[in-house]
Design a protein that fits this description.
Blueprint: H1 2-95, E1 102-104, E2 107-116, H2 118-127, E3 131-132, H3 138-145, E4 153-159, E5 168-169, E6 192-198, E7 205-209, E8 214-220
Parallel strand pairs: 4-8
Antiparallel strand pairs: 1-2, 2-8, 3-8, 4-5, 4-6, 6-7
This protein binds calcium ion (2 copies).
One calcium ion (CA) binds next to strand 7.
């Protein structure tokens, strides 16, 4: 989005320059022609002294042209910058995620490139002033993740470590039962206590072994 507005700004400025140049050009030509005509006429009728005086008049006209152009250009630039600032201010409240987080609807996520256990991933996220993701919009997060991962699954911020079978997000919300894939959570081998998000499934959540080493998603809480 920022790139788009920078391009729009550049386009607006270029448009202003072209307009200013286009409108100023006939004026320049007209003034130069008038001045030259005046020089010729007065030199013919009034002699050398008159020619000198008219040359001074022509030079004065030529000096005033750049000043007029500069004024128009400054006005156009000021107008374009003010419009850019208005647009930036309007969109800032929905796009403000601190680097390196990305906005997904109204949440800020970061995809961990390294593969690590759930607890190490959580430590990594907390070191980035966030935590493992507790997405409100889990299918928007899925859409964001598709094609960005080395494999299909990532760790997210949900666990039943405190009480087997009692799942909640790290932000305290209960997990929607239907967000688990069919047959999940199954606590396979009795050791699956950490939530993974599988982008290849229709319903995306699965309980996994917390010691698996996979990619993960951090979230930065806006306004938190
Ligand atoms: Ca479990
Ligand atoms: Ca499972």
């Amino acid at each position: 989005m920022v790139i788009l507005y920078v391009l729009l700004l550049a386009s607006a400025v270029m448009g202003a320059v072209i307009n200013t140049t286009t409108t100023a050009a006939p004026s320049v030509t007209k003034k130069a022609t008038t001045a030259a005509s005046s020089v010729t006429k007065e030199a013919t009728t009034e002699g050398t002294d008159a020619t000198t005086e008219s040359n001074a008049t022509a030079n004065e006209s030529a000096d005033s042209i750049p000043t007029a152009m500069t004024g128009s250009l400054v006005a156009a630039l000021t107008n374009a910058i003010n419009k850019y600032l208005e647009v930036t201010k309007a969109v800032d409240h929905v796009t403000h995620c601190p680097y390196p987080y990305s906005i997904v609807l109204d949440e800020c996520f970061y995809i961990g490139r390294q593969k690590m256990s759930w607890i190490d991933a959580r430590t990594h996220c907390q070191g980035m002033k966030g935590d493992l993701a507790s997405p409100n919009n889990i299918y928007a997060l899925k859409a964001f993740l598709i094609d960005k991962l080395d494999s299909a699954a990532v760790f997210v911020g949900a666990t039943d470590q405190e009480k087997e079978g009692s799942w909640s997000w790290l932000d305290g919300r209960n997990i929607v039962e239907n967000d688990f894939s069919e047959g999940e959570p199954n606590n396979h081998k009795g050791i699956e206590n950490c939530a993974g998000l599988d982008t290849e499934k229709v319903r995306v959540l699965n309980d996994r072994d917390c010691s698996d080493h996979i990619q993960f998603v951090c979230e930065f809480q806006l306004g938190g």
